[in-house]
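Structure first, sequence second, as always.
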């Protein structure tokens, strides 16, 4: 029975991977010859960013801005008035009644585009609304006033009412020299669309949250084993026993991060971001060390709960940036948490069958130790970076490693290696024996695998 379950689960997971690889689209990227205006629509305020192509900005200003993200940012920070004055001269916002909305420009950032660097100029509308209007007027002609062959595009990056978060690719308006004043129509608000989008945001947060993924992986690696004081790690006797341990781990992690996500998301308890992010990195180190030298024997759920409290504050940090009112925060907390659980479930579904298949092979224990050491190394570098605000290059590496669907490549490789190792061990009679008895407090009552 167990073997049939395993085969079915493996086929299902590989089918999901194949379908995702086929259907996954390429994320939208900035195109040469275009500059971008992004607006974040919150309940009572509007923020935004202008993304200038450095090459075009140099021509228009007669400047010598470095054509790389970091260099462009540093140059702008050294010459803020030039960029701010230019921006103020080429953007204006107003209500349909003609009332002008003052704009205040702030920080700078840089972005590497497909054909060169972009300088990002952030701004705020210096007005607090009772409720941001769903229609308003934006006049914009940066770059296109001097280079009519260029295009300027406006996109709504964030808008709870339309269920829009982190949008970078779907453009709403196109500006040209003959059409520089246009009405932004956000459409009708939909509470359901907002909640659905927050759930998707939770899923996305797990997908791109490499530290959360690695923490879950560190906890799941030993879930297909049991630890005995004399023999050490041994293969778990059944699929049900292993699944029971995984369910306990995930459940306790969920309970813990739900507590602190709620406290942080509602602003009841607030911790410094650097402290939370450093603690998350340390949680990975300790979870991986536990795989090598267990302390809470066969009780990884205790680790999941303890450090899940820390991860919850990390999740809460994202919600605090959405500008939601207190009433919307409550339902957003629920939706975001549901999304996180969906993301966690997908990770478990993807990796658990391969781990279970490989658990009786001679290479699984060395692989778990090696993987745990790698997790310790990565998380140690993260901890140093986050604690001391230094850049050691891990962000650049992880950003490229976490591109979807590139993340599925190591999963597919794991399945191939697990299948090959299992079949080789079975054919050569080298599969590790199953324990004859197990502590009933550790394992769910399941028959041993034949």
């Amino acid at each position: 029975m167990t073997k049939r379950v395993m085969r079915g689960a493996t086929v299902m997971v590989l089918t999901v991977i194949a379908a995702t690889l086929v259907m996954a689209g390429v994320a939208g990227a900035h195109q040469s010859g275009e500059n971008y205006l992004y607006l974040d629509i919150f309940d009572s305020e509007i923020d935004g960013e202008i993304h200038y192509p450095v090459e075009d900005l140099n021509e228009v200003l007669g400047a010598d801005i470095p054509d790389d993200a970091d260099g462009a940012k540093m140059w702008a920070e050294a010459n803020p008035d030039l960029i701010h004055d230019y921006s103020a001269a080429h953007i204006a916002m107003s209500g349909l009644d003609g009332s002008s909305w003052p704009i205040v420009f702030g920080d700078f950032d840089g972005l590497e585009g497909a054909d060169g660097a972009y300088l990002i100029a952030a701004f705020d509308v210096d007005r607090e609304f009772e409720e941001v209007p769903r229609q308003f007027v934006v006049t914009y002609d940066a770059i296109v006033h001097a280079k009519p062959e260029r295009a300027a595009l406006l996109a709504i990056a964030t808008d709870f009412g339309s269920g829009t978060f982190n949008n970078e690719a779907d453009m709403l308006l196109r500006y040209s020299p003959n059409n520089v004043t246009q009405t932004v129509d956000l459409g009708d608000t939909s509470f359901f669309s907002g909640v659905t989008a927050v759930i998707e945001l939770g899923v996305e947060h797990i997908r791109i949250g490499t530290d959360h993924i690695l923490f879950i992986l560190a906890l799941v690696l030993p879930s297909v084993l049991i630890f005995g004081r004399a023999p050490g790690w041994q293969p778990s006797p059944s699929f049900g026993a292993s699944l029971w341990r995984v369910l306990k781990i995930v459940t306790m992690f969920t309970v813990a991060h739900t507590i602190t996500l709620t406290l942080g998301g509602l602003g009841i308890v607030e911790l410094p971001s650097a402290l939370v992010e450093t603690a998350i990195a340390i949680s990975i180190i300790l979870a991986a060390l536990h795989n090598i030298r267990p302390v809470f024997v066969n009780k990884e759920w205790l680790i999941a709960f303890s450090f899940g409290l820390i991860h919850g504050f990390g999740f809460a940090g994202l919600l605090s940036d959405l500008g939601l009112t207190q009433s919307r925060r409550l339902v957003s907390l629920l939706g975001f948490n549901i999304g996180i659980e969906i993301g966690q479930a997908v990770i478990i579904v993807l990796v658990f069958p391969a781990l279970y298949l490989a658990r009786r092979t001679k290479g699984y224990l060395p692989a778990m130790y090696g993987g745990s050491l790698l997790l310790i190394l990565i998380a140690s570098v993260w901890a140093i970076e986050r604690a001391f605000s230094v850049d050691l290059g891990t962000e650049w590496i992880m950003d490229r490693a976490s591109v979807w669907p590139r993340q599925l490549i190591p999963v597919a490789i794991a399945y191939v290696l697990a299948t090959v190792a299992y079949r080789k061990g079975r054919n050569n009679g080298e599969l590790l024996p199953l324990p004859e008895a197990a502590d009933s407090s550790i394992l769910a009552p399941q028959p041993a695998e034949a």
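Margin note: The radius of gyration is 26 Å.
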